[in-house]
Amino acid sequence: MSPAAGLVAASDGKVSGRERLSPLVRRLLRERHLEARAVTGTGGNGRITPDDVRSLTPASSSSPSPSPSPRRLSPLVKRLLREGGLDPGGIDGTGRDGRITPDDVRAAADPSRGGVRLSPLVKRLLREGELDPGGIDGTGRDGRITPDDVRAAAVDTEAADSSRGAAPDPGDSPDSGSSEDDGTARSWTEPLTRTRRTIARRMHQSLAGTAQLTSAVEADVTRIMRLRSEVRDAARARIGSSISPLAFIAHATARTLAAHPLLNASIDVEAGTCTFHDYVNLGIAVDTPNGLVVPVLRDAHSSDPVELAARIGEVAGRARDRRLRPDDLTGATFTITNTGSAGSLFDTPILDPPQVAILATPQIERRPVVISDAYGDHVAIRERTYLCLTYDHRLVDGADAARFLAALKFALGTDAWGPEVEALRA
Predict the structure, then answer these.
(1) Distance CA 59, CA 170 (A)
(2) Is 86 exposed, middle or buried (0-12, 13-18, 19+ CB in 10 A)?
(3) For residue range 338-359, what is the model confidence (pLDDT) as tens digits?
(4) Are residues 105 and 218 in the same domain?
């Protein structure tokens, strides 16, 4: 049977196999501007298969030479190509029928990672730390780089910079800058240290990328201050120092967070998720000669004030001596900054995403306040401070913040500090 005859009824009176064209074959014929009679079918009963159409070159067709058919691209692939400024013609597709997949585009955009996907948070941390993802070993699923991997790499870089010698960072000395010498030399310019550049970027991006506001309450910590005086000598004998007010506040905070999990959560808006933690990894902001660092007290909820005082003192000392390990600076779920140690009376701290809250503890002062008891109202001198909570309104509402602060304020006014403190009292 000739090809032309294939378009008419077969000799047995049945419809010819060549007349039955699948939807895919019809589409391929339309795309190539071909007629079915120009194609020799190799399928059953002479049916034309998709490969028959694909293998037909314009030279073997009597129809005009068709223009090349463009590769089909998914909307996500098109977006990734636009974002990366990439030409699809230069990318080898690994999908079905050679289609370009999103991972193909990502691999072309960042060949150093071999196609491993980086989350938006990881990309931001890499930019902030001026780090190359190719030099970071991912510990996530399928070798993916996690935010903690990047943070650890940043700490390693800082440690390497500081261990190259005892000489200070070029940005740590005013002599290293260029003076505007007008005969008085009252001004000079110096480069920012790596630590300061990192702090600057993170703080700005935190404010730009979250919905932060601060709520505050005034708390009575008279009982804490009296207790410190009672156990001062015993604490020094036990841990080598007195128990700071910060240790009591940290203990009460960790205990209160257990009943207010929304403040001890992490948010990822791009992924549309919120992660709750059944533990409290407490970040403690430490002022060092080289800038602010925030070491983490893991499982702080399981420590009493005596142990927290020792842990805070130990990690703060290592922070000031630049002896922190990478793990010391990652994984915080909530942060406390003790601005009162420098004399601040009030503060509006900036949180560190993906955390959703940070607590500032300003200076403790003796203030006259009105006390109501069985004898009526009278004025007394009490030890008072503010508790300033900055929270991310994308996840935490004002009422949530207010309830947490009220509970923390109540906890600070009690004597329930655990058996270790009671043992010091004995």
Answers:
(1) 70
(2) middle
(3) 999 888 999 999 999 999 999 9
(4) no
Measuring CA to CA, which residue among 220, 217, 223, 216 is closest to residue 384?
A: 220
Which residue is catalytic, options 373, 397, 400, 415? 397
**Buried b / exposed e along 245-277 (16+ C-beta atoms within 10 A):** bbbbbbbbbbbbbeebebbbbbbeeeeeeeeee
Q: What is the pTM of this model?
A: 0.60
Instruction: Verify whether residue 251 is a known catalytic residue.
Output: no
Is 299 annotated as catalytic?
Answer: no
Contact between 355 and 333 under an 8 Å Cβ cutoff? The reply is yes
Burial per residue of 172-186, b for 16 or more beta-carbon CB atoms within 10 angstroms, e otherwise: beeeeeeeeeeeeee
User: What is residue 112's predicted lDDT score, i.e. its pLDDT?
Assistant: 53
Contact status, residue 108 vs residue 91, Cβ threshold 8 Å: yes
DSSP E strand stretches across 43-194: 178-179, 188-189
- Take residue 334 and report the two structure tokens written for it: 């909530």
CATH code of residue 81: 4.10.320.10
Compute the C-alpha angle 305/309/311, nearest 5°.
Answer: 115
Q: How far apart are CA 207 and CA 401, in angstroms?
A: 18
Structural domain for 90, as ranges: 71-109
Which residue type sits at 259? A
Give how many domains the chain has, as a whole number.
3
Question: Biggest alpha carbon distance in the chain?
Answer: 117
14 and 100 in one domain? no
Torsion of CA 264, 269, 272, 275, to 10 degrees: -20
Of the residues 52, 156, 287, 393, only one is catalytic, namely 393
